Each structure stands twice: as structure tokens, then as C-alpha cells.
């Protein structure tokens, strides 16, 4: 730690240059010859300036290897408008904001292109991307909605037979997949908001960090839902057991995150460890799935996606916890390329991989039922 502080000081002095944008709202003023500014706010009237790490209040000191371009206790309006300016959180905000819109698009795609139920009387394999919305012939309420109950008795008899056949196959429930998409979107938008707003005040930081951890927990917990629900659709005991376990684990993780000491830098590894444990507990249902359906191509393919997803997440957590690469060259990755930005990209990659696995689960159960 002492060596790290020495490195930070040395690089800070080397970077002791100051420049300003006269016509802009935001001023860039890195450390000046070791003078430690301790002012509480870095704003004067409507102009806000970016400050160095040592000028930050303790609640904003999360990474001593990022030396400059911090916003510190800016008024709310300037804090919100800073989404359009350059500082050391700009890319953190935008990576997950773009990720949020990506998942919003995927959700819209899923709603439009993957019907609530399929006309499973078709013997040919169904390709989800080619499916269009169809009348839900296996749902009596939907039939009623479409006025089909008033059709001729012959056609009604045929439909009744079809309903019985389709109900025997069991309708594939969609909520686990949509729960996952909602969990991913909640995580991404909370993360983006947290990075944008936390600099406003200590209280805002406290609230936003809890929402951020809540979002990560929601992503992890809801990632289990499609995996467990569709893998064990024919085994309600294990389906309920796994879903209950991970949901309880997620609630416990959110409660633990409410303890104030949880957010201190010293607890970085505890935070990362908690999320890793949650993620690793997913190994159990995955191994169980492979044992039950190891000969099925859908099980092999989804497990492959889940392994890739796990690799993205583990790599992301390692980068997050070790703060590579900025620890190797403090100050060189302040604006772009620091660990948290890499972590964000890896989270999106992992979440997208899991979305692809979810599509395979849906196709599997749409075609086979239970
Ligand atoms: Zn983040």
C-alpha cells in the first residue's frame, strides 16, 4: 500500500499540468505541485471543475490508481448534465447505458419474434428467429379473446381436440426468460445511474451503490431462472429447490450490502467474493442438467454458452478486484481503458451470452414440452 501511494504521488507530480476550457462548462485541473485542495465542492456558480484523487472526500475515494478527472460533490443538475461531458466516469456510464438499450432491444425482439406459445402441431423444427406472432391456440382464454369460440361446432370440436393435445404437451412458460431480461436491464441501468450520480453527495453515493449491488444481484439471481426452470421443467422438486435457494441467496446478499462497512475499499474482495459465490452456486444446477440431459444437443449447447458466460464474469470480477491495468500505470487510464470499464464490457458480453442460451432453452421446451 505504501509503495502504491508513493507511485501515485510520483505520477501525480509528473502530471502536474493544468489546463482549462475557457468556453466550456468543465475545467480540467489536475494536481498542482503537491498542493492538496480540500474544498468540499468543486463548483463555482455554474462552472464545475474536475479534481484529482487527493482532493476527493473519502466517500469518493475508490481507486487510488485513477488520479484525475474526478467530479466531486457537484450540484445535481451539473451531475446529470455531465453525462455529456468527459470525465473519468463517462465511459462507465455509457457502456452500461448502451448495454441497457441493447437488452431493451433484445426484449422487444423476443416479445415480437418469439410468440407466447407456439402452434406445436407443426412437426418441423421451429426456428425462433423466423417465428411470427401466432394465435395462441392452446390457451382457451386466448381463443375466447379471438372470438373463435363462436365458430361452427365441427371446427370447435377440432379445436377442442387440438387444445387437449397441446395442453398435454404443456405450455412453455415465458416468465423465467423475461425475468432474466428484466434483471439484466435493471442491473445495467442502475449501474449507469450509479456511475453518473454518485459524485453528487455522500448520501446519493450510499443509495446509488446499494442500488448498484442490488442490480448485480438481480442479474445473477435472474440468470438462474431460465437455466433452472427450463432444465428441470419436468422435475418440480429440483426446479423449486434451486430457484428458492438462489432467490434466498440474492435477498441475503442485498441485506448484507446494507451494512455500511460493506462499501469500504478494504471490502472490495469481500464484495467480489460474494458475487462470485452466488455465480458459482450456478454450477450445481448446470452439472445436474448435464447429468440428466448430457446426450441432448440443447443441453450441450446451453452448457457451452453458460461456460462462456462464466468465463466472461470471472474475468470481469478479476479485473474489477485487481484493478488492472491502471495499477501498473496509475494515471494513464483515467479516462479510458481502466479496469471498471473493462469489467462493464465483460458483464455485457456475459449477459448477452446468457441471452443466447435462453433462446435455446425456449426452443427446446417449445418443441418438446415436458
Ligand atoms: Zn460499474
Automatic annotation (TrEMBL):
UniProt-annotated location(s): Membrane
Its domain of life reads Eukaryota
Which Pfam families has this protein been placed in?
A: HlyIII
Q: Which UniProt keywords apply?
A: Membrane, Metal-binding, Transmembrane, Transmembrane helix, Zinc
Give the species: Elaeis guineensis var. tenera (Oil palm)
Residues annotated as binding Zn(2+): 195, 340, 344
Q: Where are the transmembrane segments?
A: 93-114, 177-199, 211-229, 241-262, 269-287, 299-321, 342-364
> What membrane topology is annotated for this entry?
Multi-pass membrane protein
Protein name according to UniProt: Heptahelical transmembrane protein 4
Look up the record and give one Gene Ontology term from the biological process aspect. Answer: response to sucrose
Q: Which GO molecular function terms does the record list?
A: metal ion binding; signaling receptor activity
Which GO cellular component term is one of those annotated? Answer: membrane
Amino acid at each position: 500500500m505504501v509503495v502504491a501511494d508513493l507511485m501515485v504521488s510520483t505520477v501525480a507530480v509528473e502530471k502536474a499540468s493544468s489546463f482549462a476550457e475557457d468556453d466550456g462548462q468543465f475545467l480540467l485541473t489536475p494536481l498542482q505541485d503537491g498542493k492538496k485542495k480540500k474544498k468540499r465542492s468543486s463548483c463555482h456558480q455554474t462552472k464545475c471543475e474536475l479534481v484529482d484523487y487527493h482532493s476527493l472526500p473519502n466517500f469518493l475515494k475508490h481507486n487510488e490508481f485513477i488520479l484525475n478527472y474526478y467530479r466531486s460533490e457537484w450540484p445535481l443538475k451539473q451531475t446529470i448534465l455531465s453525462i455529456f461531458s468527459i470525465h473519468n466516469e463517462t465511459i462507465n456510464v455509457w457502456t452500461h447505458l448502451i448495454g441497457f438499450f441493447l437488452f431493451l432491444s433484445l426484449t422487444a425482439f423476443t416479445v415480437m419474434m418469439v410468440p407466447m406459445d407456439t402452434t406445436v402441431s407443426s412437426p418441423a423444427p421451429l426456428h425462433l428467429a423466423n417465428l411470427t406472432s401466432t394465435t395462441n391456440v392452446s390457451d382457451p382464454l386466448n381463443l375466447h379473446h379471438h372470438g373463435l369460440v363462436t365458430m361452427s361446432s365441427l371446427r370447435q370440436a377440432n379445436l377442442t381436440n387440438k387444445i387437449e393435445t397441446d395442453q398435454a404437451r404443456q405450455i412453455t412458460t415465458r416468465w423465467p426468460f423475461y425475468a432474466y431480461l428484466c434483471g439484466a436491464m435493471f442491473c445495467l441501468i442502475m449501474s449507469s445511474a450509479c456511475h453518473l450520480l454518485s459524485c453528487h453527495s455522500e448520501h446519493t453515493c450510499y443509495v446509488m451503490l446499494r442500488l448498484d449491488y442490488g442490480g448485480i444481484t438481480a442479474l445473477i439471481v435472474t440468470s438462474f431462472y431460465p437455466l433452472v426452470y427450463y432444465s428441470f421443467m419436468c422435475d418440480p422438486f429440483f426446479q423449486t429447490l434451486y430457484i428458492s435457494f438462489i432467490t434466498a441467496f440474492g435477498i441475503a446478499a442485498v441485506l448484507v450490502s446494507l451494512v455500511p462497512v460493506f462499501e469500504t475499499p478494504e471490502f472490495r474482495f469481500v464484495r467480489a467474493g460474494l458475487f462470485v459465490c452466488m455465480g458459482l452456486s450456478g454450477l450445481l444446477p448446470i452439472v445436474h442438467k448435464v447429468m440428466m440431459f448430457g446426450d441432448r444437443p440443447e443441453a450441450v449447447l446451453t452448457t457451452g454458452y453458460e461456460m462462456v458466460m462464466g468465463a466472461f464474469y470471472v474475468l470481469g470480477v478479476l479485473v474489477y478486484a485487481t484493478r488492472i491495468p491502471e495499477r501498473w500505470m496509475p494515471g494513464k487510464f483515467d479516462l479510458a481503458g481502466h479496469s471498471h470499464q473493462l469489467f462493464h464490457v465483460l458483464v455485457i458480453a456475459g449477459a448477452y451470452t446468457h441471452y443466447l442460451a435462453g433462446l435455446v432453452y425456449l426452443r427446446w421446451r417449445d418443441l418438446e414440452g415436458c
